[in-house]
Amino acid sequence: MNIAEIFAANLRAVRVARGISQAKLANSAGLNTKYVGRLERGRQSPALTTVAAIADALSIEPAEFIAHDPSRVIKLASST
User: What SMART domains does its record include (predicted)?
Assistant: First the structure.
C-alpha cells in the first residue's frame, strides 16, 4: 500500500469505528461530503490543514492516519 491508500483505509476505519457518517464528518471538519468520500477511496490527497481538521473532528492525532497497522488505529478510535 502507498501512503494515500493507507490514509484512505485508516480514515474510513476510524470514521466507521466511531459510528460517524461521511456527511457528519464532513460537516464537523468543514468539508464537502463528496470530498470525504474521495479521500476514503484514495482518489484525492488532502492538504495538511485538511488532515488536521479531520483528525480534530475524529479526536485523534493526525499521524494516526498514516499508521501502517489499521487494527491499531481502529483500537484507538474505539477506545475514545
Answer: HTH_XRE
Cell of 50: 485538511
pTM of the predicted model over 0.90: no
Q: 3-79 belongs to which homologous superfamily?
A: lambda repressor-like DNA-binding domains (1.10.260.40)
Residue where the block lists cell 490543514: 49
User: What pLDDT, in 10s, does the model give residues 21-33?
Assistant: 999 999 999 999 9
Task: Sort residue 74 into left (φ over 0), alpha (ψ -120 to 50) or beta.
Answer: alpha
Contact 7, 46 (CB under 8 A): yes
